């Protein structure tokens, strides 16, 4: 596996590698949301991606980068849902076993999808420590290769392909791109793609107030945990890693926090006005733009809608 920050060439190679297996998702616009925000918004619809989330890109790139020896005993990871699906999906594509550790309170829609791709699920308490402990047990028992959900350069390189497509598809140069931040894999990939393919395009992150570790880390120059964790955005609960944090510090302009109420409001606009299914974590970027209108007023803004895996029995509206 790569031990260096992804280069422009690495992102281009990753894009060619994953292209046969993914959707080139559409970029959509909304006059209503342009008027509401005072900006020109371009939505990269990764909610329409294979597995219903951008994570298919990183999962595929990481697994397609492994040698036959590394695949022989299977793949393992820990995830509350979308990365779990990505690894299960990608492992099935190459005929490898997948051993997935999921928190016991993961959304049912994501659990069922992981099972549907043929993976073996082990449930654990929803703490980072428990996730990592159970994964280590699986590695000891099976010899499986571990693919970290975000703190892995192949994963980051795969996630970078979403912003690369967005930049290429929006002919006019974007003033900024905004992505949600959990562990930072997508944000890092987005920031690197902007740096290489659209110099001058700023990159921002949206983060839930109820999982505000990245903003604390960003401001204090060291990786911090959130003071409390309570948010509807279940895909953004993890803290930054030693690979993601330095990239974020180097290439991201700022991290903007939003409340659960603001996330649900943005999610509702996307459902009602754009007629697209977006999960709470996927609506965080729009929520951050609507909360910070003066920052983005009159500008061309790319927004990555990260996923659409919603538990329809537990809609927040």
Automatic annotation (TrEMBL):
Its EC number is 4.3.1.19. Signal peptide: none annotated. InterPro entries: TrpB-like_PALP, TrpB-like_PALP_sf. Its cofactor is pyridoxal 5'-phosphate. Residues 19-307 form the Tryptophan synthase beta chain-like PALP domain. Pfam families: PALP. This is Threonine dehydratase. It comes from Dyadobacter arcticus.
